[in-house]
Amino acid sequence: MFKGYKDLPEVPMTWDTTFVNITGSWRTVKPVLDPEKCTKCYICWKFCPEVAIIIDEELKEVPKIDYDHCKGCAICANECPKKAIEMVVESMEE
Amino acid sequence: MVKSVITGNYASSYGAKLARAQVIAAYPITPQTSVVEKIAEFVAEGTMDTQYIKVESEHSAMAACITASQTGARTFTATSAHGLTLMHEMLIWASGARTPVVMTNINRAMAPPWSVWADHLDSVAQRDTGWIQYYCESNQEVLDTIITAYKVSESREIMLPSMLTLDAFYLSHTYETVDIPDQDKVDKFLPPFDPLYKFDVEDPHLFGSLSFPHQFYMEWRYQIALSMERARDKILEIDKEFESMFGRSHGGLLDLYRCDGAEVVLIAAGTMASTIREVVDQLRDEGEKVGLARLRVFRPFPAKEIRELAEKIDVLGVLDRSYSFGYGGAFFAEIGGALYNHPDKPVLKNYVVGIGGRDVTPNTVRGIFENALSLQDRGLDKEIEWIELKEGGE
């Protein structure tokens, strides 16, 4: 949308938020949540450094993982007290 | 308006108070510490409404100022020597993020060996960080420059940080009469900070994120280059506006003293300019055609003013209170660069003086003028000379 210095904002910034930066492709391992084991404690949501764990406002559902932004750091899997998150190796075909 | 007898450091503190700085990052270093100590007193006695943050290093001090500035707060900090050089990374961030932080730096020598006395290496070494740099000569100039620096830096045509420097002890700890202007009058001159963009949870953006080589990193740097060019005229404009309201000016970019009809001129920054003024008066009384050009602003560099001066004189002696090992004084190199493409060049000589706070006395200056006057007839004797260097070895 910008062409050069004459139309750039004067501060190095974007018009959009970080949601437009799709970083999921950086991932080599992928967290997969087992809804049977999950107790909805949401510790994974608290620890995720990328805000890639999505929870519902009523706190009724098991968390969802935003694979567009999850970088596969595995902090969620490490922190989960019920070992409900497994890190699965990403395959090149997907 | 109140006349007070205060140090250069306290003049800085009063400047920040009058400018209504909303966030102060405080970290101690000699000879700066009393700048932020005085501000702590203002906060404790309830005369200054500000967020006073005691940080754990100078690097953090600048990080705090940058981010507070990005939320829309007017920010101030002060440092010296090793503190300033520890900030180096964050200084570049401040200009890159276009935050109009204003900071006082007390010019102090860098160790080893340890020295807490006047030397310009600390701030000269920050030349390329994208900061506007003012070198002050008096405590009044320190106070006034904080107020004008905010107005220049916060202007939407500029949006760059400013550093004003004062020589260790010669100003930082020396008491002078200073006019402390009325708050109402300063408020009329300096409106609240109103940034173009700021951190806002209702309107989120990414600030300072990645820019690939094919994107706009180069263009954002070019915008800074343009802003720094515009800062020349902006500093002069704000200087005039300040003079019309407060009745004082500190000489814009290059402060000329008795340069009309001068044939030999010394150029210097900081407090030694006051000593040179005295010697210029003495030598003028003796019939010598001499003058002083005080380099008040180092960035943006007053190349045009230096060229205009150079056209009229025979010898320009550049006094550097710092040294770039492997070449010469930084001011000398820059002035030489400014004159290279100019057709009318005077003899240019570098006098390296006052390193590590070595006193630059009227006799020192007289000796330099005597040498510079002798170059009118015989031409350049030596490109770079260290003045009053102890030789020993006999």
Reading the helices and strands of chain A in chain order gives: EHEEHE
Spatial order of strands in the largest sheet of chain A = 1-4
Report strand order across the widest sheet of chain B.
Answer: 3-2-4-5-7-6-12
- Count of DSSP E strands of chain A? 4
Shape of chain B: globular
The mean pLDDT of chain B is 97
Which class of the largest domain in chain B in CATH terms?
Alpha Beta
Count of beta strands of chain B? 15
CATH architecture of one domain in chain A: 2-Layer Sandwich
Tally of separate helices of chain B: 13
Unreliable residue stretches of chain B = none
Q: End-to-end span of chain A in angstroms?
A: 31 Å
How would you characterize this protein structure?
- The complex is a heterodimer of chains A (94) and B (394).
- Chain A has 94 residues and is α+β, with helices and mostly antiparallel strands.
- Chain A has a domain at 31-89: Alpha-Beta Plaits (2-Layer Sandwich).
- Helix content of chain A is 11%, strand content 15%.
- Chain A contains 2 helices and 4 strands.
- In chain A, the strands form 2 sheets. Chain A has a two-stranded antiparallel ribbon. Chain A has a two-stranded antiparallel sheet with strand order 2-3.
- Chain A is elongated and about 55 Å long.
- The mean pLDDT of chain A is 93.
- Chain B is of the alpha/beta class and 394 residues long.
- Chain B folds into 2 domains: 2-246, Thiamin diphosphate (ThDP)-binding fold, Pyr/PP domains (Rossmann fold); 254-386, Rossmann fold (3-Layer(aba) Sandwich), CATH 3.40.50.920.
- Helices cover 40% and strands 19% of the residues of chain B.
- Chain B has 13 helices and 15 strands.
- In chain B, strand 13 (315-320), helix 12 (330-340) and strand 14 form a beta-alpha-beta unit.
- The longest helix of chain B is centred in the middle third of the chain and has 30 residues, at 217-246.
- Chain B is globular, with a radius of gyration of 21 Å.
- The termini of chain B are far apart.
- In chain B, 49% of the residues are buried.
- Chain A binds chain B through residues 2, 4-5, 8-18, 21, and chain B through 96-98, 156, 159, 196-197, 204-209, 211, 216, 219-220, 222-223, 226-227.
